[in-house]
């Protein structure tokens, strides 16, 4: 089975680049996993067109990694952090993870999170 590649086309005008916007998204908290056994995240049979996976020592770092990847692909992420907090019902990101307390001696263990989304092109 072939892996799907994330490919986003940017539309340009005389004024510059027109950013694309996230229409709908879902945050997937995979939790703490060993990098050798993490199975990833896919969008097959879902309503989403794109997905990125981030990793870090905490959920917040993993989400920041996802947002950075989305921004680098030409999609506006201006309100994404606020939207995630609102959607999850959080006032701030959970900071402490089991990775820091339980698995600190295993450097191959990370907290993983994915963001799946569909795009809305500007009118």
Furnish the topology, listing elements before pairings.
Layout: E1 11-13, E2 16-18, E3 20-34, E4 50-56, H1 59-72, E5 75-76, H2 80-88, H3 98-101, E6 109-120
Parallel strand pairs: 3-5
Antiparallel strand pairs: 1-2, 3-6, 4-6
Describe the structure.
By secondary structure, this protein is α+β, with helices and mostly antiparallel strands. It has one domain. The chain contains 3 helices and 6 strands; from the N terminus they run ββββαβααβ. Strands 4-6-3-5 form a 4-stranded mixed beta sheet, sandwiched between helices. Strands 1-2 form a two-stranded antiparallel ribbon. Strand 1 and strand 2 form a beta hairpin. It is globular and about 45 Å long. It starts with 10 loop residues before the first strand and ends with a strand.
Percentage of residues assigned to helices: 10-25%
Tally of separate helices? 3
Uncertain runs = 1-14
Count the E strands. 6
Shape: globular
Mean pLDDT: 81
Biggest sheet, open or closed, and with what strands and sense? 4 strands, mixed
Instruction: Give the strand order, joined by hyphens, for the main sheet.
Output: 4-6-3-5
Order of helices and strands: EEEEHEHHE
Strand residue content: 25-35%
The helix-and-strand class reads alpha+beta
- Cα distance, first to last residue? 36 Å
Report the radius of gyration as a whole number of Å.
Answer: 16 Å
- Domain count: the total is 1
Oligomerization status of the protein chains: single chain
Concise description?
The strands form two sheets. A four-stranded mixed beta sheet has the order 4-6-3-5, with helices on both faces. Strands 1-2 form a two-stranded antiparallel sheet. By secondary structure, it is an alpha+beta fold.
